[in-house]
C-alpha cells in the first residue's frame, strides 16, 4: 500500500450502485488514474481487471426482473395459443349471426 490509498467498505451486495458516487467524485476531481487496486467480495479477492466485473454486475433487482421475464414468456405464449381457437370460434359465430341478420333483413323487404 504505497502512494495514495482509499478504502471503501460496502455492506451490501449492490456494488455498482455504491460505486457510482465514487466514480462521479473521481471524474469531478480528475482522479481517473487513481483507481482501485482490487477488492474482496464474499471472501474472494478481485484484482484491478476483475474488479470491473464486480462494478458492472447486475443488481439483485435486475436479476429478479430478468428471471421473472424468462418465466413469464412461456406462460404468455401458452395463454395466447389457448385463446386463439376460442377467439376464432367467436369470430366465425359473429360472422354467421351477421349473415343471418342480413338475410332476414333482406327477406322482410
Automatic annotation (TrEMBL):
InterPro entries per UniProt: Ribosomal_uL10-like_sf, Ribosomal_uL10_bac_type
Annotated signal sequence range: none
Parts forming coiled coils: none
Source domain of life: Eukaryota
SUPFAM superfamilies: Ribosomal protein L10-like
Family: Belongs to the universal ribosomal protein uL10 family.
Protein name (database record): 50S ribosomal protein L10
Organism lineage string: Eukaryota, Viridiplantae, Streptophyta, Embryophyta, Tracheophyta
